Amino acid sequence: MKIFLITSMFLATLLLQSCLDKKSSNKVVTNTPTPAPGFTPGSVGTGTGTGTGTGGTGPGGTVDTSCSAPGTGTQPFDYYTLPSIIAHGKSSNVVAWSSATDPRLQTPTAQNMFVTDARFQVRVLAHPSPGKAIDTYNNVCTMEALPYTRLQVKVGVKLPGAATYFATHIFEYGNNTEIEVNGCSPSYSFALPPHTGPLVVEVMNVKWDYSCTWDKQMGVPESSSSYCPWGLVWVHDCYEISLQIATDYTKGLP
Q1: pTM of the prediction?
Q2: Which of 101, 82, 86 is nearest to 36 (CA)?
Q3: Among 98, 124, 133, 218, which residue's Cβ finds the most Cβ atoms within 10 Å?
Q4: Residue (of 200, 189, 185, 187) closest to 241 by Cα position
Q5: 3-class state of residue 186 by DSSP
Q6: CA gap 23, 26 in Å, rounded
Q7: HSE on the CB side for 242, CA within 13 Å?
């Protein structure tokens, strides 16, 4: 009888532990990622056209201060600002910049900027031409600064390891066709599929208004120019933008 009771207690203990283990294995644990350091509104300027991304006004006029206004909501961390993305012009649909390859973002903590489940808002800031600067990938911009005054930027978002984008968006400004230099686009919310890990954000098809300006200077009527009102940034020239990003773990873009 004593042996039977001991055996019964032992089996009951095993059964209870099994149930607890099963319950624990089904529990979803959500950890708030460590904020990516150095990519907040307080750490970024508005661009000078020198390739530094730290100055005041430029050829496009005064800086739109609303583009750096504090975020909205109750989250403790403000939205991210990834400053001074300097890139060369590219052919159509060729990636000019990627969050997966930017040298500044090659740490797990920096990649936390792109970790989210539901909310992923993006806004683009346009800066003056950086001129003879060093681009984000340490390539030399060999051409003098050209006075573009507006940019149009296409952004694609894809899942880690994916070959294609689940969504793209062309960032413009309101009823105009481009973002004014020293200004910013409206924010855009990407609808996200189920996923794990940091999203990949890429920039392509960046267009400027300088192609149209050049054509008109060469005597080509705007009505017959294939570069008006805009055209792809020329491959030997550079442009500068910043990206602002809001996730589940940050305040929203205003």
Answers
A1: 0.77
A2: 82
A3: 124
A4: 185
A5: coil
A6: 5
A7: 32
